[in-house]
Amino acid sequence: MKTAIIIPARYGSTRFPGKPLTMIAGETMLSRVVNVAHEAIKQLRSITPDITLAVATEDQRIADHATELGVQGIITSDNCATGSDRVLEAFDTLGNDFDFVLGLQGDAPFTPPEALVKMIEAVQKNPDIDVVTPIINLRWDELDKLRAQKKITPFSGTTAILSAQGKAIWFSKNILPAIRKENRDDAFSPVHQHIGLYGYRVDVLRKFVSLPQGYYEQLEGLEQLRLLENGISIQTVKLDLAAGLAQAGIDSPEDVTRAEAMLKAISA
């Protein structure tokens, strides 16, 4: 299975210009994301040796930094509506003989390599999968932290509800499902938090980008709802790790400070 891992890394963020080049504990954010991809590729070599890694950006400074990191930097247009649009534009520069394309967020430097590995393994086992994305089953204390967080920032953190086969039924910025009676005898709650990266069959990515924004997508601000609103299935893979850094995207300079504090606490 010929696979492309593409990192959309936009310089012109409204809230945080130059974000991919910002330093986090002595290393650029883009460097950290590239290292995540390299670690996943190393683990996948035995089953999927043909993996291409590239950075998609609208800014030459980021493309040049990608080159410094030993990764191809592809200049894309400045009017890509979503990361997925940027991934597809870069993908078309690479060529059309790939089977699967995975978009690795350029502002999520703590994405566990396990996420990429499990996504690609899932498609390797079942090539009919349209889209695949990772989730984490929250422990009760993690759910309590998410609830507390949402009192401050209601639109942080996305949850998913799943079918018995692990296909996504819905995603929301609300915490789903609502739990009428909480049984905390089990360590894990019924809530799954979504990690926002996606792997696509190439034909499905093209279809997704061509579709207009969905009604619920606009209400929730979640691009994956466009897929569900148009009958495109999303297979989830469950990660075997604690919530925490896996959800730590970088959206502001304050997030950098928090991320560095978390790294310091982990290494202590």
State the gist of this model.
The protein has 268 residues and is of the alpha/beta class. Helices cover 37% and strands 22% of the residues. Helix 2 (60-68) links the parallel strand 4 and strand 5.
Molecular structure report:
With 268 residues, the chain is α/β, with parallel strands linked by helices. It folds into 2 domains: 1-110, Spore Coat Polysaccharide Biosynthesis Protein SpsA, Chain A; 114-247, Spore Coat Polysaccharide Biosynthesis Protein SpsA, Chain A (Alpha-Beta Complex). The protein is 37% helix and 22% strand. The chain has helices spanning 29-44, 60-68, 83-94, 113-125, 140-152, 202-210, 215-220, 224-229, 253-267; strands at residues 3-8, 23-24, 27-28, 51-57, 72-75, 100-103, 131-139, 159-162, 168-172, 188-194, 198-201, 234-238. The strands form 2 sheets. Strands 1, 4, 5, 6, 7, 8, 9, 10, 11 and 12 form a 10-stranded mixed sheet that branches. A two-stranded antiparallel ribbon has the order 2-3. A hairpin with a 5-residue loop joins β8 and β9. It starts with a strand and ends with a helix. The mean pLDDT is 90.
